[in-house]
Specification:
Number of strands: 17
Largest sheet: 5 strands, mixed
Distance between the termini: 110 Å
Number of domains: 3
Strand content: 5-15%
Radius of gyration: 33 Å
Helix content: 40-55%
Number of helices: 16
């Protein structure tokens, strides 16, 4: 009868190639079985495999099962291929070898390292300690190399995540490239379309559930696709919810941009992931095919930031929600309903009120406001249509040349200012050390320069995108003019027209409005181009 009842413990770190992993598991298994065949006092009763787990951490499911078997007295021997299979963290690995296993009377065998705790001569404490330290050093080195490799891939626009966002899948030709999922991408487009049409996230979720469209988690499970635990699941039934919809509406991936490196582990020994500072995020535009146009995505983000809360009985936001501003205090106006003689009257008013600082709060009737805004907007659209006709007779190449010169000048100026701000920030620490500025002033100036640098980088990026459009001969006018001309036959005002064409409406009085339209800068530039073209004709 065998003296020892043993479990073979096999561990394999995730390497991305499942075939290689299986072979490695098989190699470990064959080595252990060959050893036991030559050792009659040991009976192999079970095998525990942790496939895809780091050796630094001991929170592994199969390892914990093995320890439970030891605690229950089912086994008294543990066999591994080598010491690193047990673990690569030398302190914790040493604790199991010197304290935990001996306390349970467990024999430990690491075959290729010639360690067998049943024989004192098989491996002294110094040898084991050195091997543990070498294993941890190896793990640290691998961690550094892996992090560096992943960072390079991110900056090259490669997708390095395990689970593509809903709406995309990994390309068969290149697993680091995302391609639209034919079905899910259309659902994503419908979600954005409904949001632009004024539907709330709750309404969108309800409509998707009514149509029987599977939620992201259900869809991935039904297709046998990998998915993150707790990813898009909002309940046991895995139905669509407002949370899921909003998550999709905020994801810049749908514009063709990869934003990676937002979360990570601070140290190779720490399992918990944490949010990294935005300065460490890696953003690569045009890394894959876009599902949603950039202008539509930006518009949705603006809508999301507006005060677009709905009443409990409403499925869509109100016509002017988030857009209407009090001309006195600058606060956003709120819709209210009064009932008189069996009829309903809808108004917008400033909730700040005189008690809270608004000196001249205004209440304006919704119907009258709608009529006036509609008339003003239609007149503005007519102007844009006329402007388009005039622009069509202008040499676009000359316009593009003028725009390219303007954008290049702005880029150079912003880059000069960015370099200047960066230099100020670099000298700031020297001023602190020298006692020129206090710690409080240092923190204030640092925050100021950081904010200015971020604003300048954003401005430079936006200008470079515009310059690229001009250099590629993509008409600058078409991009914004189309936003207006598509509403040229508009008869009644709706939420879609409001959010697409109007930035804000300031209510200065019951009969006085100040409307700021979308693309006002582009409108003014187009007018200037026409003036420039006329001057050249005269010259």
């Amino acid at each position: 009868m065998a003296k020892y009842k043993a479990e073979a413990y096999i561990r394999l770190s995730y390497a991305g190639d499942r075939t290689i992993e299986s072979d490695s598991v098989g190699n470990q298994r064959r080595l252990i079985e060959s050893f036991i065949a030559k050792t009659p006092e040991i009976e192999l009763v079970a095998e525990k495999i942790d496939d895809g787990y780091s050796g630094i951490l001991f929170d592994r499911p199969a390892f914990k099962e093995m320890m439970q078997d030891i605690s229950d007295g089912k086994i008294n021997c543990v066999i591994v291929k080598d010491l690193s299979r047990l673990g690569r963290e030398y302190i914790e690995t040493g604790r199991y070898l010197r304290r935990v296993f001996p306390a349970y009377g467990v024999r430990f065998i690491a075959i290729t390292d010639n360690i067998d705790t049943a024989h004192e001569s098989s491996g002294d404490d110094l040898t084991v300690s050195v091997r543990n330290i070498m294993n941890e050093a190896y793990c640290r080195d691998i961690s550094i190399k892996t992090r560096s490799s992943l960072d390079v891939k991110r900056r090259n626009g490669d997708f390095v995540g395990a689970f593509p966002v809903y709406g995309y899948m990994k390309s068969e030709e290149n697993r680091n490239r995302l391609v639209p999922d034919p079905y899910a991408s259309r659902v994503v487009q419908d979600i954005f379309r409904m949001r632009l049409d004024g539907a709330s996230a709750t309404k969108i979720a309800a409509e998707l559930n009514r149509l029987g469209i599977p939620s992201p988690l259900t869809y991935k499970k039904n297709k046998g696709l990998p998915c993150a635990k707790g990813g898009f699941a909002d309940g046991e039934d895995c139905k669509w919810s407002a949370t899921t919809v909003n998550r999709i509406l905020r994801d810049v991936t749908y514009t063709g941009t990869l934003l990676q490196g937002k979360v990570g582990t601070p140290h190779y020994k720490i399992k918990e992931r944490e949010l990294r500072p935005s300065s460490e995020w890696v953003e690569v535009p045009d890394s894959h095919e876009a599902i949603i146009a950039k202008q539509d995505f930006d518009l949705v983000q603006r809508i999301q930031r507006l005060d677009t809360r709905t009443a409990p009985e409403q499925d869509t936001v109100y016509l002017f929600s988030g857009v209407l501003i009090c001309g006195c205090c600058g606060g956003r106006m709120t819709r209210k309903t009064n009932r008189r003689n069996g009829r309903e009257y809808h108004y917008y008013y400033c909730p700040t009120g005189k008690r809270n600082g608004c000196q001249h709060p205004i209440m304006v009737q919704e119907q009258r406001l709608t009529v006036n805004v509609c008339a003003i907007l239609k007149a503005y659209i007519d102007n844009v249509v006329s402007l388009e006709a005039l622009l069509s007779s202008v040499d676009q190449q000359k316009i593009n040349q003028a725009l390219a010169k303007e954008y290049s000048g702005h880029i150079q100026e912003n880059e000069r200012r960015l370099e200047e701000v960066s230099e100020y920030k670099a000298r700031l620490y020297e001023s602190l050390v020298s006692g020129i500025v206090t710690r409080e002033d240092y923190n204030a100036f640092k925050a100021k320069y950081t904010r200015q640098a971020e604003e300048l980088r954003g401005s430079i990026q936006a200008l470079k995108e515009k310059l690229e459009d001009v250099m590629n001969n993509r008409s600058e006018r078409n991009r914004w003019i189309t936003h207006f001309t598509q509403f040229s036959s508009m008869e009644t005002l709706d939420r879609k027209a409001v959010v697409r064409l109007i930035q804000s409406i300031r209510v200065l009085g019951k009969k006085e409005l100040e409307i700021h339209f979308a693309y006002e800068d582009e409108y003014e530039k187009a007018v200037q181009m026409l003036k420039l073209a006329d001057l050249r004709k005269v010259g």
